[in-house]
Design brief:
mainly alpha, Four Helix Bundle (Hemerythrin (Met), subunit A), Arc Repressor Mutant, subunit A, extended
Length: about 280
Amino acid sequence: MSGIADIYETVGEVEAGPGLPHIEDASAVAPRDARELSRLFFDRLRDLEEGTHEYQYARNTLIEINLSLVRFAAGRFRGRAEQMEDIVQVGTIGLIKAIDRFDLSREVEFTTFAVPYIVGEIKRHFRDTSWAVHVPRRLQELRVELAKATAELSQRLDHAPTPAELAEYLGISREEVMEGIVAGNGYTAGSLDVPVDEGDESGGASYAERIGELDPALEGVENLHALRPLVAELSERDRQILRMRFGGEMTQSEIGAALGVSQMHVSRLLARIIARLRAGLLGHS
């Protein structure tokens, strides 16, 4: 991961604009002074033209004088395996987003506004990088919901909740619960070098020695699972077109004849449907 210096330009490289104080070492500003200076710089920033030296100076200074917020938020994740420097860098991205979206007219302290952005960016980083096996985003989020629901229901029912009880509590189907439970197994992974049970006929060989070739259809199965909720969101007509084209293997001319439209119109409809599904897949990858 690149250093913080790669995320934004050094303040000293840009001259202070009119109405703004020159700060020699913005990172050394005390938190109490940072709050007052932030109000001053935000007030000036909204009047400056984006892309100018003065705008860049004001924005960069806001980043540096508020880095203490990032370090404060990053402290909540100190027990994680990642280096604290990496966590701070990710949190700094959240700080930058908060600065770009903050408005003094909100009548709220910038610290109150920025911390959720910083923490959210760090949590998003762990969510996207902590999984040992890649699973779709919706299943990552479902795993978190299942964990919370399991803890809540275990206390309420005085026993581990069944998939049916979890489904009723979350308002989803039992099949979705089972899918989330199975996907949760991808959060951590064991070593393939661990020997198989000694009582096994393999004579203590490792799991790695028993793995066959990569199944070329595996990616197709994953794509089908990811496509299922996206297809369900389509209109009945769009789903019918997909069934005829890819299920019935009908030509575009045959589909057009069945629907009473031209082959060219079917081509445009298919292109639109496929583009929508592709966008959905990319959004969940």
